[in-house]
Structures are given as C-alpha cells and as structure tokens.
Amino acid sequence: MNMTESRRENWLYCTYCERAFLSNSKSYCIYDNCFGNLGDIWDWEIIRNINKGYPEMPVAGREYPLYGDGRFINLRRAGYEEKAASHLRYNC
C-alpha cells in the first residue's frame, strides 16, 4: 500500500446511528449527534453485502437500517460470520 492509498477516504458505516460517511478513520462516527466509535464503524461494503439493494455510493447523512427491510439476517448462514469476526478483532 502506498501513501496515496492509505490516505484515501472510504465509505464507512456507523452501526450506532445507521448512517454512512466518507472517512479514512474508523475511530469514531463523524456525526455530531452520534456517539458511535471504534467497534461501531464498519466498511460500507459489509453493509452492502448484507443489504443487496443498498447503493454502491451511499448518500451521506441518510439512515440505512442495518437489516434493510427489518428482517433478521443470520450472518453465519449468509457467510459473513468470519468477516464480522475479523472486523471485530481488528476494530476492538
């Protein structure tokens, strides 16, 4: 990874307020009225894999419910258990 890639902003998602934002830091949510921090910030791609209808580039500030239409998703059955586990190990 070169310096340009390490500084590139990525779409991230806060599980606390369920909003997406551009940032290069997973330390905290950027929204003033949110207390989301380290373990609450996920890559947008993980959220899109769970919610197939979500856009590639989300609208900043818009709420995107983690489970989309309100149904429960079994992450193990969906094949995201390992991704979620590695995400939590990395971010907690």
Explain what the structure shows.
The structure is a single chain. The protein has 92 residues and is an alpha+beta fold. The protein has four helices and three strands, in the order H-E-E-E-H-H-H. The chain has helices at 3-7, 44-50, 75-78, 81-91, and strands spanning 10-14, 19-23, 41-43. Strand 1 and strand 2 (19-23) form a beta hairpin. The protein is globular and about 25 Å long.
Short characterization:
29% of the residues lie in helices and 14% in strands. With 92 residues, the protein is an alpha+beta fold.
Rg is 13 Å
Give the strand tally: 3
**Main β-sheet description:** 3 strands, antiparallel
Strand content: 5-15%
What is the percent of helical residues? 25-40%
Unreliable parts: 1-6, 72-77
- Helix/strand structural class: alpha+beta
Which shape, going by the Cα principal axes?
globular
Measured between the Cα atoms of the first and last residue, the distance is: 23 Å
Q: Treating each run of at least 4 consecutive H or I residues as one helix, how many helices?
A: 4
Main sheet: strand order? 2-1-3
- Give the overall average pLDDT: 77
Helix and strand element order: HEEEHHH
